[in-house]
Amino acid sequence: xxxxxxxxxxxxxxxxxxxxxxxxxxxxxxxxxxxxxxxxxxxxxxxxxxxxxxxxxxxxxxxxxxxxxxxxxxxxxxxxxxxxxxxxxxxxxxxxxxxxxxxxxxxxxxxxxxxxxxxxxxxxxxxxxxxxxxxxxxxxxxxxxxxxxxxxxxxxxxxxxxxxxxxxxxxxxxxxxxxxxxxxxxxxxxxxxxxxxxxxxxxxxxxxxxxxxxxxxxxxxxxxxxxxxxxxxxxxxxxxxxxxxxxxxxxxxxxxxxxxxxxxxxxxxxxxxxxxxxxxxxxxxxxxxxxxxxxxxxxxxxxxxxxxxxxxxxxxxxxx
Length: 320
Prior knowledge:
By secondary structure, this protein is of the alpha+beta class. Helix content is about 15%, strand content about 35%. The two termini are about 40 Å apart.
């Protein structure tokens, strides 16, 4: 039974380590990361299920708390109207009291403001990290950043070709081409007009057309996304077009323009430069995708989008 208002409240022991880790992570990041570029360089990953567990009353501003059921799949959890923030909140069999909300709210404010990576919650510390620093399967990994030569005036596409070896891909590489190895395959990524084709390899896809940001120099950033169902990015934006090519699993992208579902065989998911977004892994299968950000080479890769509040419709989306 919920505790009476005004009664002395205590933090449940089962959540104390998580909250302490969150606060410690936020404090450490504030002390060590003084550069705005460091804070906003990449996309930020956070498990939506963990958010519901820790912060039932202090999630996204303007949205009610979520009452989660332990047996319910994370990708199909429904948002509930919930009690008022001044009342004790029940999540499953755990009572989250005012003391817990106060500690969590302080930590969340620091995390949201600084886009703070939280190593204890996100597989790659809350950011997209260089693949050379990889220590876990799940997360976001940057494989290459390629400054581009002048592009044609025709509509621009991201061409994806697969090769049996790196040497074969390097031999076929042309202007604005980049060779990477992701998910055990060698890929040649090329930014060119729609009609361009590689001289070798297996042509997998041409993703586009891609809207170009206003910039004196463009850079193609290529990443790998590994999302478990229910894993979610923070609300963020990029100074350029972002595109995904889904190899397995499914994703749902919410922006002010609506939602897009990405899965193998479906049209690629593309978001325009500067659009705020929230990306969620959906369905029941591990999500694996190739990612491109075609961006201003002289801007940070990503930044928090605090001026937009998503409706969280992707948390109820179906993968099929």
